[in-house]
Automatic annotation (TrEMBL):
GO BP, sorted A to Z: pentose catabolic process
Pfam families referenced in this protein's UniProt entry, alphabetically: Aldolase_II
UniProt KW keywords: Lyase, Metal-binding
Domain Class II aldolase/adducin N-terminal: 8-185
Annotated protein name in UniProt: Class II aldolase/adducin N-terminal domain-containing protein
GO molecular function, one term: aldehyde-lyase activity
GO terms for cellular component: cytosol
């Protein structure tokens, strides 16, 4: 049973995402698994100022709406990722300034490991999903497939999706994803990345467990 306190917490986290500049106006969406149910930002809602009446409650197994609020058009990949990943409770689709610029670049980078935070938190390899219409089944399946064994994905000509065990982990991944893209763009393409050996050495920094 979803409580008012949980809805308020979800709204606060949505506003946090907006305050950080990860979403603007109606861009992006966010979800949170609570037991067998999922809170989702509603269709057409503005994540930075998400109100209670725009929070959808869905059954995870079927996607059935339980409170009469239509969920985001991207609910297909939110629910799909949560079904595939028992270790994940939060999914965040965002469109931050620099990462979205990279998603729209003709000659985009293929290696984002400009600082240690990227392989440690975002992922040493970031899969890319080709452009599909927002809200389409093809886009949903592309994101679900990419996040089966990764925690972050770049959507061409669209944005990004990250997932995490909780709000903090998903937020951290999104922020470091954006930081890496800012470094790449502001360097004018004249940047270096960590070597495979340097990435392997980071295992000790993250307690011997490599980030996917």
């Amino acid at each position: 049973m979803i409580t008012n306190e949980q809805i308020e917490q979800f709204i606060a986290q949505a506003h946090r995402v907006g305050d950080a500049g990860l979403t603007i106006c109606s861009s992006g969406n966010i979800s949170w698994r609570i037991g067998d149910e999922v809170l989702l930002s509603g269709t057409g809602s503005w994540v930075p100022s998400l109100p209670k009446e725009k929070v959808a409650v869905c059954r995870l197994s079927t996607g059935e709406v339980l409170n009469g609020v239509k969920p985001s058009m991207e609910s297909g990949f939110h629910l799909g990722v949560l079904r595939e990943r028992s270790d994940v409770n939060v999914v965040l689709h965002f469109q931050s300034h620099y990462a979205t610029a990279v998603a729209c670049m003709k000659n985009r980078p293929t290696n984002f490991n400009v600082t240690a935070e990227v392989p440690c938190h975002v992922g040493s390899e970031i899969p890319v999903v080709p452009y599909f219409r927002p809200g389409s089944k093809e886009l949903a399946q592309g994101v679900i497939d990419a996040l089966k064994d990764h925690n972050s994905v770049l959507l061409l000509k669209h944005g990004q999706v990250v997932c995490g065990k909780d709000f903090d982990q998903a937020f951290e991944r999104a922020m470091f994803f954006e930081m890496a893209c800012r470094i790449i763009i502001q360097s004018g393409g004249d940047y270096t990345v960590l070597t495979p050996e340097e990435i392997d050495d980071l295992e000790t920094y993250i307690l011997g467990k490599k980030t996917k």
